[in-house]
Amino acid sequence: MSVVEVTLKHAARAGNVKGDNSRDYTRLFIVRTDNTSDDERVVLLAPGLPRLGNALAADLGARCNAVVPRQTGSDLVWEVTCTFSTSSPTDQDPDVALKPPLERPTVIRWGFVKNTKTFDEDIGFAGQPSSPYVNTFGDFFDPPPPRLEYNLTVTITRNEAAYDPERAEQYAGVANDAKWWVFQKWEAFMLPWSATSQFEDGQSFWEVVYEIHFKRDLWIPVKILNRGSQYWKSRVDAIGVPTGVPLLDGSGNKIALVAEDDEGVKHDGIVLLNEAGCKLPEKDRAAGNFHFVEFVNHLVNDFDRLNLP
Predict the structure, then answer these.
(1) How many domains does the chain have?
(2) Distance between CA atoms of 25 and 17, rounded to whole angstroms?
(3) Which residue, of 87, 110, 144, is where some domain finishes?
(4) pLDDT tens, residue by residue, 36-95
(5) How far is CA 208 from the centre of its chain?
(6) Is 269 among the domain residues?
(7) Is 242 in the same domain as 209?
(8) Residues paired with residue 151 on neighbouring β-strands, in sequence order
(9) Which domain-ending residue is among 87, 122, 150?
(10) Would you state the pLDDT for residue 131?
(11) How do strand 188-190 and strand 203-214 relate by DSSP bridges?
């Protein structure tokens, strides 16, 4: 008595994602034996079938939690359904499931999200400050090269007695306004919550899912390399070198110029600017002392008021 063949039925693969971002998968295997006396015990030990606790190759976070053999119309052919889930053991603990909904523990799931973005500066190296993306002459690259980022994420799922849509709106798309948990100010960013009404054992409650993304270089402020096609005419020192301080005309107004090439021909090109809006002095350009303009593009709120995690 033995198993002669184990085949994965590719067309029967299935999966789903739940509201708390947990993932479930189903795989169907066809197992053929060479003896009609072979029963479930023989089939369950078939080489090539997943074992309880095995990871799914397509999603290493999903573990096998059930292997169910079922005989087909043929005495020698079995269908074996294997299910996988990313749910933690706590999710499946029967003792936890027996607790009242509002007494069940919070479920925390860590992960990462991949982003490809363009930045005006690199990330620095070995403790060095970041540097703008410029060529050896000091001109910036346009567009800047893309950079791949992996941002840490956390999903927090818990049951709550009530759901306040107005409060949820106040926290949708905001950064933390002070240190929260182990993360510094402006490092955490709250995505919109999801909430699902539930009813169990005569009790109504809400399953609320919080998703938060983190950035080591902070969500606030956004830094953009200071550059433009116009700039303020600069004062010059005693030997005619621009000082980077705007020159005023007879009426006390700054004098706007359009970017010029080396022959003084005006064009619509882009030049690097200093913090005063003048063309960046050559000494600063050569030394890599570029100026970045900072903007606040996210609202903030107090994450401690949510009593997370």
Answers:
(1) 3
(2) 9
(3) 87
(4) 888 887 888 888 898 887 889 889 888 888 888 888 888 899 999 999 998 765 455 555
(5) 20
(6) yes
(7) no
(8) 113
(9) 87
(10) 74
(11) antiparallel
The reply to whether 295 falls in a domain is: no
Nearest Cα residue to 154 out of 111, 184, 113, 189: 111
- Beta strands 3-8; 299-301: pairing state: unpaired
Contact (Cβ atoms closer than 8 angstroms) between residue 290 and residue 226: yes
Could you list the residue range(s) of the whole structural domain that residue 127 is in?
94-219+300-306
**Tokens read off for 150:** 């992996």
What residues contact 24, with CB distance under 8 A and at least 6 apart?
15, 16, 18, 62, 83, 84, 85, 86, 87
152: which residues sit within 8 A by CB, 6+ positions away? 110, 111, 112, 213, 214
Q: How far apart are CA 134 and CA 130, in angstroms?
A: 12
Provide the β-strand partners of residue 148: 116
Residues 99 and 212 in one domain: yes
For residues 127 and 125, give the distance between their C-alpha atoms in angstroms, rounded to a whole number: 6
CA distance 14 to 82: 11
Structure tokens at 171: 């926290």
Rounded to two decimals, the pTM is: 0.57
Same domain for 55 and 133:
no
| 166 Cβ contact list (under 8 Å, min separation 6) | none
| Cα–Cα dist 170/177, whole Å | 13
